[in-house]
Amino acid sequence: xxxxxxxxxxxxxxxxxxxxxxxxxxxxxxxxxxxxxxxxxxxxxxxxxxxxxxxxxxxxxxxxxxxxxxxxxxxxxxxxxxxxxxxxxxxxxxxxxxxxxxxxxxxxxxxxxxxxxxxxxxxxxxxxxxxxxxxxxxxxxxxxxxxxxxxxxxxxxxxxxxxxxxxxxxxxxxxxxxxxxxxxxxxxxxxxxxxxxxxxxxxxxxxxxxxxxxxxxxxxxxxxxxxxxxxxxxxxxxxxxxxxxxxxxxxxxxxxxxxxxxxxxxxxxxxxxxxxxxxxxxxxxxxxxxxxxxxxxxxxxxxxxxxxxxxxxxxxxxxxxxxxxxxxxxxxxxxxxxxxxxxxxxxxxxxxxxxxxxxxxxxxxxxxxxxxxxxxxxxxxxxxxxxxxxxxxxxxxxxxxxxxxxxxxxxxxxxxxxxxxxxxxxxxxxxxxxxxxxxxxxxxxxxxxxxxxxxxxxxxxxxxxxxxxxxxxxxxxxxxxxxxxxxxxxxxxxxxxxxxxxxxxxxxxxxxxxxxxxxxxxxxxxxxxxxxxxxxxxxxxxxxxxxxxxxxxxxxxxxxxxxxxxxxxxxxxxxxxxxxxxxxxxxxxxxxxxxxxxxxxxxxxxxxxxxx
Length: 612
Prior knowledge:
Blueprint: H1 20-33, E1 40-44, E2 85-89, H2 91-97, H3 99-106, E3 116-118, H4 124-136, H5 146-156, H6 159-170, H7 178-187, H8 191-203, H9 205-208, H10 212-215, H11 219-226, H12 236-248, H13 251-254, H14 258-263, H15 272-279, H16 283-286, H17 289-303, E4 326-331, E5 344-348, E6 353-356, E7 368-372, E8 375-382, E9 387-395, E10 400-404, E11 415-419, E12 422-426, E13 438-442, E14 447-451, E15 462-466, E16 469-473, E17 485-489, E18 494-498, E19 509-513, E20 516-520, E21 532-536, E22 541-545, E23 556-560, E24 563-570, E25 575-583, E26 588-592, E27 603-608
Parallel strand pairs: 1-3
Antiparallel strand pairs: 1-2, 4-5, 4-27, 5-6, 7-8, 8-9, 9-10, 11-12, 12-13, 13-14, 15-16, 16-17, 17-18, 19-20, 20-21, 21-22, 23-24, 24-25, 25-26
């Protein structure tokens, strides 16, 4: 209503002071510091023997001393001369900031009416820090208090602080503390920290095995560790040396465990010379009949290949650490006009960024890529006019390419893998027909050797190493596209059939990750595919997983950081620079940063960061 030209005002006005809550907490903290208006006292009461579940922690920082993080299993109680500690506070502040006290003071528990509450077993400095946190939201975490803070936060149900402490420990994992951190994480039920420590142990096993923590492990933990497929070792010989060092740390007590340890080590994968000169000559091994039997079994593996199928499968299965972070290299490929490229770029999964590398000397699309000893090999391919037999190798330390020995056959669209330090190329197209021939390259001799051909001519097949065998899936022979799969036993030089894929496909990606083998994308003769499948050798069966977001033919699939990366491809209309990542834990595909210099048709290789 308007009268005499004056507008009517709203009856309701909202006024607020946004900083009032934080300012109010600051005032309450000052009041508490003065000892005023406090209505509850927290009393920390400790026995003279200390706390049975407390463990000593030291995180390796810079050049500080390298004490170990001793897990609860190996800890011992210490006599302590600690009296009672009392901390005054306000019930309302504790209830508002700490879930444990909220439940205590608002649910008519006995303590809600008590003026003094006993906090049995909490470290007094941690309790004081957490009470202060309730008032000011600030907490200083360091290597001396992180363990007691995590334990206190767990007790008080302060998940954010618990997570912050876990992050602190995770960022400071070191070969000398990771076993203890893992044990502590298990005790405190910190799954993310436990998994991170586990992965660190796998990646740095050789260094971990030289630590005091490793030598102090109980037998069951050592057996569990040396049995892991995921150990990152250059050879099985390093696992043997680790186990023997553990035994020699206390030979009288641990000597009888040596046969059980050796039975969990993959002795057949050791070099014959190492078996004869090192293992067999060790005095602890020589005086043990069961150990000598295991050595004989390993020797027979090398001397009598026909006996290999009768050995326990795990003893001849190479270890594969799939959780290691690796830099993914995109090599050659095509531009938007369909021309072959010599361009190379590298992707860091951690930073989600691509960077350009030094180009190859030759343009190559449909190129084979392999990684051996930290070096990247670009093999064959198509230069826009001819199929190639030439090979060049890239050294990431010097950012340079060097020519090495050429293949016996010209090939593009072949499958390329590495097994036992040797490069294998399978099938492909020579300009006239699809091939069934297979060649292997030795970096030591710089020579290519022809080995047993596949049962089918296959171009644009998916090829990957899985459980110590070379698996070749799909592809085409120029007339038909296959769903069939075969695998190669390099010990017996024989090919064997495996269960066929659910879909026929060529130009698809293939990679193994952990205990599974994956294929994705490709072309089935009538359409470009986004569908993906996973294979389990236990049941010899394929099943579908969630499809990629994009249809991708000529796609490359590679594993890094425990995930799969589908790089580039062709969707039926244009070449692709996009990249998708598959996380087997969440079973989801996520777009990553696209390639900067390529548009499809790339070859990919992954160089572990530990080798650079």
